[in-house]
UniProtKB/TrEMBL annotation:
<feature type="transmembrane region" description="Helical">
    <location>
        <begin position="101"/>
        <end position="121"/>
    </location>
</feature>
<feature type="transmembrane region" description="Helical">
    <location>
        <begin position="250"/>
        <end position="271"/>
    </location>
</feature>
<dbReference type="InterPro" id="IPR052337">
    <property type="entry name" value="SAT4-like"/>
</dbReference>
<dbReference type="InterPro" id="IPR049326">
    <property type="entry name" value="Rhodopsin_dom_fungi"/>
</dbReference>
<feature type="transmembrane region" description="Helical">
    <location>
        <begin position="212"/>
        <end position="230"/>
    </location>
</feature>
<dbReference type="Pfam" id="PF20684">
    <property type="entry name" value="Fung_rhodopsin"/>
</dbReference>
<feature type="region of interest" description="Disordered">
    <location>
        <begin position="283"/>
        <end position="319"/>
    </location>
</feature>
<keyword id="KW-0812">Transmembrane</keyword>
<keyword id="KW-0472">Membrane</keyword>
<feature type="transmembrane region" description="Helical">
    <location>
        <begin position="18"/>
        <end position="35"/>
    </location>
</feature>
<comment type="similarity">
    <text>Belongs to the SAT4 family.</text>
</comment>
<keyword id="KW-1133">Transmembrane helix</keyword>
<protein>
    <recommendedName>
        <fullName>Rhodopsin domain-containing protein</fullName>
    </recommendedName>
</protein>
<feature type="domain" description="Rhodopsin">
    <location>
        <begin position="31"/>
        <end position="274"/>
    </location>
</feature>
<feature type="compositionally biased region" description="Polar residues">
    <location>
        <begin position="306"/>
        <end position="315"/>
    </location>
</feature>
<feature type="transmembrane region" description="Helical">
    <location>
        <begin position="133"/>
        <end position="152"/>
    </location>
</feature>
<feature type="transmembrane region" description="Helical">
    <location>
        <begin position="47"/>
        <end position="66"/>
    </location>
</feature>
């Protein structure tokens, strides 16, 4: 069956996908703040910069909504039997310029937040602080280059949206967007793998190293979205750009929103621990109601004298610190214990009852 291009539309898909994705990213950031509060941790730069990443993600999605409303995104151009004429294409490209800035800013803020999170956790290792700084410089240079090339890709600049200007020229836009996506992907992998050499130098069992590495590699889900986004550029036809850019737009939003979500996952341990604890208590209460004699026995066990909670790493997988502590304290304990034998770091060691923030507080 032949479909009339004039009646084809993907605008509803664009609205639903972008709205749901930014909503999930917003929930993820909110849960991050809740979890940090449960851990008794003070909010730091990595938390606030991720809020900026979320704001930029909102700007990215809002730009797509403006393109849908005024630029015909999700519809065919008149060259392919659709309703989007010259004026619509004009507005599409005019909105596309700030859209690029929101995309680059969101990607940079997410990477910066991750690097600062690593710094927060592994700050005691001096050489790693320099690695974080070098990685952040690469991220900032990526942002500066992208902004300059994106803003000046056409000469004069208005030629980007108004192709009627005589003598105007542009760089190969298709190649720029494609290779920018590849560069973004490579930098993502660099940031995500930044902690792995340090983790695998710790004196831990392989299972524990794999567990910790897995936590820090959760961002690979966002990298998968980046890979798919790069492949969607093969579909772009600039003669029908308002239709063929739909998949690129959707996967750009998926990439940024998923990046924000993955950056938050590392902080969820206190929230998950509290939720599981409440769930277990609820189950225990139900069991006691069904079997009162078992409840009496449980109470007797709980009040058994001289009984201390286990802190056995071999059974827990992660060494537990104080109740509700997050991955920061866990990994820092490992790092401190390992580097304590090697005087290449600060002489003061964090104790198992301290959080990162308590370590920084002066003794009074």
């Amino acid at each position: 069956m032949v479909v009339d291009a004039g009646h084809q539309s993907r605008t509803a898909e664009l609205y639903s996908d972008t709205i749901s994705l930014v909503a999930l990213a917003t929930i993820a950031v909110a849960l991050r703040f809740v979890s940090r509060k449960m851990a008794g941790s003070k909010l730091w730069w990595d938390d606030w910069i991720l809020v900026f990443a979320l704001i930029f993600d909102y700007g990215l999605s809002a730009s797509y909504w403006l393109q849908v409303k005024y630029g015909g995104l999700g519809l065919h151009t008149t060259a392919y039997g659709g309703p989007v004429a010259r004026d619509g294409i004009y507005m599409f490209y005019k909105i596309f310029l700030p859209l690029e800035i929101f995309y680059f800013a969101s990607a940079t803020a997410i990477k910066t937040s991750l690097i600062l999170s690593y710094y927060r956790i592994f700050w005691i290792v001096r050489w790693f602080k320099w690695e974080c700084l070098a990685a952040w410089i690469i991220v900032v240079l990526y942002f500066i280059v992208d902004i300059l090339v994106g803003a000046l890709e056409c000469s004069p600049v208005p030629f980007f949206w108004d192709k009627s200007i005589a003598g105007g020229t542009c760089i190969d836009q298709d190649q720029f967007y494609r290779w920018n996506g590849v560069a973004n992907l490579l930098i993502d992998f660099m940031v995500l793998t930044l902690t792995l050499p340090l983790i695998w130098r710790l004196k831990l069992k392989a299972r524990q190293k794999l567990s910790i590495s897995g936590v820090f590699l959760l961002g690979t889900f966002a990298c998968s979205a980046s890979i798919i986004r790069v492949t969607t550029f093969d579909q772009v036809n600039f003669e029908d750009v308002t239709w063929t850019m739909v998949d690129v737009s959707i996967w750009s939003t998926i990439e940024q929103s998923l990046g924000i979500i993955c950056a938050c996952l590392i902080t969820y341990q206190p929230l998950l621990s509290r939720t599981l604890s409440l769930f277990r208590r609820s189950n225990d209460t139900s069991e006691v109601e069904r079997n009162p004699s078992q409840g009496t026995e449980m109470a007797r066990l709980e009040t058994k004298p001289n009984q201390k909670p286990s802190n056995n790493v071999s059974t827990a997988g992660f060494a537990r610190l104080d109740e509700g502590n997050d991955i920061e304290g866990t990994v820092t304990t490992y790092v401190t214990a390992d580097w304590k034998e090697n005087p290449m770091v600060l002489p003061k060691a964090i104790t198992k009852s301290q959080t990162i923030e308590q370590y920084h507080q002066p003794l009074g």
